[in-house]
Amino acid sequence: MIFGPVIVAIVALLILLFAPINFKTVTPKKIDQAATSLDVRVLKGESVKNAAEKENYIPIIGSSELSRMDPFHPSSMAQKYHWKNKPFLQGNPGTASLTQAINVGGMSNLKGNKAVFIISPQWFTKTGVPSDAFKYFLSPLQLTGFILNSDHGDKAMNKYVAKRVLDLGVSKGPIEDGALERISKGQQITNFQRMYIQRISRSSLQSQDNLFGALSMNDHQKMIDKAASQLPDTYDYKHLNRLATKLAKKHSTDNDLQIGNSFYKKELRKRIVKYKNAHRHVTYTRSPEYNDFQALLYMFAQNNTEVMFVIQPINPYWVKYTGMPMSSITNFDKKIKYQLKSQGFNNIVDLSNVKNPNYIAEDTIHMGWRGWLMLDKSLKGYYQTKKADPKDTQYHMNSYFLTNEWASDNQF
């Protein structure tokens, strides 16, 4: 009488987690909510994103800038002006290239479709992605997929990713860790490792994702509705540009750095003085992030994904206030473009150097207002078709970009 119900509950839970049952919890309504939720479970899961890839969504993959949902945010613009395909946002503060590489590797339905990827220069520090941030956003489910697929694809990339994951202090259990060790040495995983990871680890994680991946997600629809309601009914870029400037001025009155009032009050007002000339020695050309970014490019190439890369701007007034050399930005720009173009990734929207940068950023380092609008101008046509154009996926990958020599190359 005491233990019976407990035993039944445990058995039922085990059946739910380990039985090969496909739980249909991802509805069109859930996909629509997930598209703007920025929910960590959606990022770390697979079921919702792969369901969205079967519908009229094109992913925008990035980091914290995606949460700046003003009227000119792509989700607002897509809703107001009825884009044929809608953005599916994937990113959080702290996500960078390696997290997103493993994320893209887990998006099985991305193959042959389009994506947008936003590059943030500030990822490319001397130390690269912080271990704690990477471990927090790393998906155990996507990692099992990477391990099981390691017999295929590019061997140099698989070795790099496995070693990098281990070097960042990730541990998911002795069997998974052992499999990563083998991959990092260029070896195939053992039959036992494959059986255990496929039938036990991954099966359980997939069941959890199917059951809970779309449960009680963040809901930003009201925010998008409010933002879209501020836009005129007819799309006119010049008019929208004037509106963006007007709204930006209205919401950045607390400072002369063109930074939004809410961000300035919360993050900067009490410590603004300490940032004066604090970035005089910042450089973005020597970083392990370049190797992580190369792993991401491999994942896109393996999926034959057509990608629009967006180089995010840094607030020019913030650059001047902190004393950051302009060469830090221009040299980063040259280096990352070389890595992209030399391998066939030619669709690049560069917002790091525009003629009129006023109100291009909402805070110090994230797009907002006019920055979003400039990007929207490119996205508007790109979102007309979901399928990749084969001529735009003729990639020729170069493993040199996975080396320390490239990561530390400062000749730009």
Major sheet description: 5 strands, parallel
Cα(first) to Cα(last) distance is 74 Å
Beta-strand share of residues = 5-15%
The poorly predicted ranges are: 8-19
**SSE order:** HHHHEHEHEHHHHHHHHHEHHEHH
Mean pLDDT: 94
Tally of alpha and pi helices? 19
Strand order of the largest sheet: 2-1-3-4-5
Helix content: 40-55%
Instruction: Specify the overall morphology.
Output: globular
Instruction: Report the structural category.
Output: alpha/beta
Q: Any idea what the radius of gyration is?
A: 22 Å
Quick one: how many beta strands?
5
Keywords: Cell membrane, Membrane
Pfam family, one: DltD
Pathway: Cell wall biogenesis; lipoteichoic acid biosynthesis
Family: Belongs to the DltD family.
Q: Describe it for me?
A:
With 412 residues, the chain is of the alpha/beta class. The protein contains 19 helices and 5 strands. It has helices spanning 4-18, 28-37, 40-44, 47-52, 74-80, 97-105, 131-137, 140-148, 155-167, 174-184, 191-212, 221-228, 237-250, 261-268, 289-302, 316-322, 326-341, 370-382, 404-407, and strands at 57-61, 86-90, 114-119, 306-311, 348-350. The chain has a 5-stranded parallel beta sheet with strand order 2-1-3-4-5. α5 (74-80) links the parallel β1 (57-61) and β2. α5 crosses α12 (221-228), α9 packs across α10 (174-184) and α10 crosses α11. The longest helix is centred in the middle third of the chain and has 22 residues, at 191-212. Residues 8-19 have low confidence and may be disordered. Belongs to the DltD family. Pathway: Cell wall biogenesis; lipoteichoic acid biosynthesis. This is Protein DltD. Keywords: Cell membrane, Membrane. InterPro entries: DltD, LTA_DltD.
